[in-house]
Design a protein that fits this description.
four-stranded mixed beta sheet, elongated
C-alpha cells in the first residue's frame, strides 16, 4: 500500500515538474524583444537621455538568475521613474537551462527633472560586497 502511494506521489510530482518546465519561457514566445521594446526610448549608460512625461523608457541588460545574481535597481529620486514591467528573453536561438537571458525593464517617467537609475548585479543575500557590476543611467524628464 505504501509503495503504491509513493509511486503515485512521485508520478504526480514528475508530471507537475514537467508541466512547470514546459510552461517556463512561454510568455517570451508570445512577444519578441523587438516587439516588447517597440515605442520605448532605450536608456544609454554613456549619456543622459531626455524623456517626456508620456514616454516609456527601457533598459536592456544580460542576467543569469541561475547563478544567484540578479539586478537590483535604485531610482534617485525614487518617485521620478516607476518600473512598469520586466521581461526576460532567451539569449540566442537555443533554450538551455541555466543559460544567460536578456532582461528588459520598462519605466514610466512621473516627475520632471533629473533622475538616476543605478543597477547593481549582485547576490542579494550576500549584500553589497557581492556586487559584480554596476550600471548607471541618467535621464532628464520634461513635460
Amino acid at each position: 500500500m505504501k509503495v503504491k502511494y509513493i509511486v503515485v506521489l512521485m508520478t504526480v510530482l514528475v508530471l507537475s515538474l514537467g508541466a512547470l518546465i514546459a510552461s517556463m519561457g512561454q510568455e517570451e514566445d508570445v512577444q519578441t524583444m523587438d516587439e516588447f521594446l517597440s515605442g520605448t526610448v532605450l536608456l544609454n549608460e554613456k549619456k543622459t537621455v531626455c524623456l517626456k512625461l508620456e514616454d516609456t523608457a527601457a533598459v536592456v541588460l544580460e542576467e543569469n538568475p541561475s547563478t544567484g545574481y540578479k539586478w537590483e535597481i535604485t531610482v534617485d529620486p525614487e518617485e521620478a521613474l516607476v518600473e512598469v514591467e520586466k521581461r526576460s528573453f532567451q539569449k540566442g536561438d537555443k533554450k538551455l537551462m541555466g543559460a544567460p537571458k536578456i532582461a528588459v525593464w520598462k519605466f514610466s517617467p512621473k516627475l520632471e527633472g533629473k533622475a538616476k537609475l543605478t543597477f547593481n548585479y549582485l547576490r542579494p543575500w550576500e549584500g553589497e560586497e557581492s556586487i559584480k557590476k554596476t550600471v548607471v543611467y541618467r535621464v532628464r524628464i520634461k513635460k
